[in-house]
Amino acid sequence: SIPTTCLGYELDLTQISGFWCYQSQWEQIKQPLYALPKPLWATGNEEFLDPIDKPSDRFFHAQTKDGQFWFVVPDTWPN
Q1: Which strand ranges, in their side-by-side order, compose the sheet holding 34-35?
Q2: Residue 51: is the preceding peptide bond cis (ω within 30°)?
Q3: Which residues contact 45 (CB under 8 A, 6 or more apart)?
């Protein structure tokens, strides 16, 4: 089920969108991903220059050209 609170705060489920996967599932994503710097995590990017070639050993936020947000985490996440 989808949580409705986090750290005591109510979550607005209408504002939550996007996908997540483990790094081992990377090849199942059918579109190129473009890294999002932290200031753009919520708003997204309009400039798509360098697609991510392959996952690194840490988590990252990314976006497709058509606006899908992705959060890719190591297979050991959250440890």
Answers
A1: 19-22, 69-73, 60-63, 34-35
A2: no
A3: 34, 36, 63
Pairing of β 19-22 and β 69-73:
parallel
pLDDT tens, residue order, the chain (79 aa): 677 888 888 888 787 788 999 999 999 999 999 999 999 888 888 899 999 998 888 899 999 999 999 999 999 987 7
Spell out the residues 6+ positions from residue 63 whose beta carbon is closer than 8 angstroms to its own. 33, 34, 36, 44, 45, 48, 69, 70
Largest Cα–Cα distance of the chain, in whole Å?
A: 38
